[in-house]
């Protein structure tokens, strides 16, 4: 080991022949210039972009401010319109309540008036019914009186015929007196006329006919 150590402790000289290397300073300077140029360009681009963005943001802010102001004006106008509509609504509701109250009063008045008119109509209808019944009774009585008149005319015609026939008998008989008992006789007739009116006002006397009067007169005259 000691021998090896003694051998390894000798001086060694090495000579290297090499070409000159690149200038690192120049390279570093070039890189620094390139990076500075790149940084300047990037800074310029960033500044331009920032300015553009700032301008856009400012424009947007201005536009947004105008829109906000417009919206605020619209909200104010809408609130004013809402208040006006609420006032109008309250007025309309009040008018509707007044009209409903007036309508209820009018309906009540007309219902009362209609009830009174209905009562009057009922009374008038009853009176008309009574008047019609009375007129019907009067018509029946009138018919009865007409029958009585007709029978009286029959009797008058009969007496007239008897008188004419008696005068002719006196003329032809030569002075025969009435009531002497010979050649003549006294004709006594009695007639009773009764007029009865039932609950339905129906006449009890049968109607007379002209033919009966003529036949009776002819028989008496004969």
Automatic annotation (TrEMBL):
Presence of keyword Coiled coil: yes
GO terms (BP aspect): epithelial cell differentiation; intermediate filament organization
Entries under Gene3D superfamilies matching the protein: 1.20.5.170, Single helix bin
Pfam families named in the record: Filament
Record-linked SMART domains: Filament
Signal peptide residues on this chain, from the entry's feature table: none
Listed name of the protein: Keratin, type I cytoskeletal 14
Taxonomic source organism: Dryobates pubescens
